[in-house]
Amino acid sequence: MNQLWIINKKDGSVATISSVAMTGQHDAKWIDDSSSASNITFYDNGSSSSFSRSLELDPQMNSILFSYGNSEFEPI
Hints:
By secondary structure, this protein is mainly beta. 0% of the residues lie in helices and 38% in strands.
């Protein structure tokens, strides 16, 4: 699955599923661990070895706020 999910700790339900295209994503973290309204950062390694970028999503995970990488000018 090429999505990020936010799981409700109280009942195990899925609170949010990302709608941003990604492949090989990992290391998702809240920017502010104390707030679920915080933005989320993670790495997207794509489907090839030449693709890698770092992304920041809004808390609803439906838009990219910041992207870095995947070009010769933005190496990771």
